[in-house]
Write a structure and sequence with these properties.
Residues 13-149 form the Copper acquisition factor BIM1-like domain. It holds the Pfam family BIM1-like_dom. This is Copper acquisition factor BIM1-like domain-containing protein. The chain is an alpha+beta fold. It has helices spanning 2-13, 161-209; strands at residues 16-20, 47-50, 55-60, 65-73, 86-93, 97-102, 116-124, 129-139, 152-153. It has a single domain (2-158), classed as Distorted Sandwich (Coagulation Factor XIII, Chain A, domain 1), CATH 2.70.50. It is 29% helix and 29% strand. The chain starts with a helix and ends with a helix.
């Protein structure tokens, strides 16, 4: 009974934190408040964020969750502006703790060098949507600390289907080869049989002539 109560408490209180780049702020009880978990003021110090091959890092207290990532253009976007955001990516995580999420802005409308913007995360682990935001300045020359991201989720790293496809293709080729070899063997056997018949007929014909 005590274990059940503890499990329930963990489920209800479990949230997440945006750790890189730094979020506007985090208060556990206000994280369900849109659009930025109760923090409506822009950070005065913005993070320089790359247009290509960017990522964000979260610390999840849930085992798995779906995450929607958006970009809102503007120096100080209003609450209404978040309703006109642009999707960066839709991702999912399958482990608690630190998770590094791809945030490539290369094809995001409005993303350009020198533009001020806000990255918004919507985190859903089945117990309601939780919000976090990070204020950034987009840069074509910025680079991130790769040590913050040992394993990227999404983006170019999300290629688990390729090995599977290759294995499937290889398997198909392998299974086709024995079939082809069997066919060649059958053709060879038929050729030998025909040769034998011709030879016997020739011998019979020769004997008949004597």
């Amino acid at each position: 009974m005590v274990l059940s109560a503890l499990a329930l408490t963990w489920t209800v209180s479990a949230h997440y934190q945006l750790t890189y780049p730094a979020s506007r702020g985090f208060i556990d009880t206000s994280e369900p408040t849109a659009p930025c978990g109760g923090f409506n003021n822009v950070n005065t110090t913005r993070f320089s964020f790359p247009l290509h091959n960017g990522f964000v890092v979260i610390n999840s207290e849930h085992v798995q969750a779906s995450i929607q990532m958006y970009l809102v253009i503007g120096n100080n976007p209003s609450t209404q502006a978040f309703n006109q955001n642009t999707t960066i990516d839709n991702l999912s995580i399958k482990q608690p703790g630190l998770n590094c999420l791809s945030a490539n802005l290369a094809n995001v409308t409005g993303a350009a060098d020198g533009v001020n913007a806000t990255i918004q995360l919507l985190f859903n682990a089945g117990d309601g949507i939780l919000y976090q935001c990070a204020d950034v300045t987009l840069s074509s020359s910025a680079s991130l600390n790769q040590s913050e991201c040992p394993q990227l989720i999404g983006g170019s790293s999300n290629s688990s289907s390729s090995p599977s496809g290759s294995a499937s293709a290889s398997s198909g080729s392998a299974s086709a080869s024995p079939s082809g070899s069997s066919g060649s063997s059958g053709a060879s056997t038929n050729s030998v049989a025909m040769g034998t018949i011709v030879l016997l007929a020739s011998v019979a014909f020769a004997l008949g002539m004597f």
